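input
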Amino acid sequence: MATARIDQQRGQGVRRLDLLLHRVDSRIEAIRVATAMPVRDVKRLTRLLCEKIETIDPGFGIERMVLIASLAEPMDQRQTVSSLIAEEEVEGSKNRLSRFPR
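output
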């Protein structure tokens, strides 16, 4: 995904992606996915797009697909490290939170 590489070089993440599918009969089908926070993870963005791809009507065929990062924002440095949190830290947080009354 070239878009993700470009945004990473600029220190940005994608907030909204549009996938435009140009059909043989000159119609355009579109899929839009959005995230709450800027994302660079190509697998996550692909999974979001794949969840919606089933809604596309291909008609007689698709000639061209265009992927557009319609909204990109700077990444917060803390976000880039969040996936590296050790499992025991997560479990410790759950234990502390479980002490609060509901």
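quick obs: Confidence is low (pLDDT under 50) at residues 78-82.
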